[in-house]
Amino acid sequence: EAGVVQSPRYKIIEKKQPVAFWCNPISGHNTLYWYRQNLGQGPELLIRYENEEAVDDSQLPKDRFSAERLKGVDSTLKIQPAELGDSAVYLCASSRRGGGTEAFFGQGTRLTVV
Amino acid sequence: AQSVTQPDIHITVSEGASLELRCNYSYGATPYLFWYVQSPGQGLQLLLKYFSGDTLVQGIKGFEAEFKRSQSSFNLRKPSVHWSDAAEYFCAVGGSNYKLTFGKGTLLTVNP
Question: Which of A59, A87, B27, B72 could potentially form a cystine with B31 if both were Cys, beta carbons 3.0 to 4.6 Å apart?
Fold first, then answer.
């Protein structure tokens, strides 16, 4: 089966500009996660979807970050405006359901804000 | 709050030597525990997981991990390391709250 697909792989933008990341989860996976991984750190959850509903967005900086998962499949994560501190790798993952089931990760989008 | 501590930031071993990566967790109920591996520029790949049952779990690439509730630990082991095992390793804890929390990772270097 195809894995989690993310695009773009790399993105360089100037601060204050907007940016968007796209994720296509594994077919049949109802749960979708967005994580941010800072250099030298483990991934940190930004938002979790169950189908099209955002069920945990407590760690999402809502003043500048937004996400959507239309039709419960693909998802987009947006930052507007970007700040220097947003430079990180943004990882998308999916699983069949939440809780302890295995999450499969995409290759990530490396964002550099200059 | 749930958390994971990986005490070793960087470990260097010789090829063919044994390996143990440490992981301690904090979780208020029965945890689900995971080890993931990340190669440079790649996403995370699951090595193994513990949900319940046998506390010694086998994973891919010859890795195993042992869940010790009394020590709140889930250490990863491999009897003989290969050069291709060089990567960063992350321990993670999750559970019925559906939140997966990762440690900061341990970078493994393998000397020839």
Answer: B27
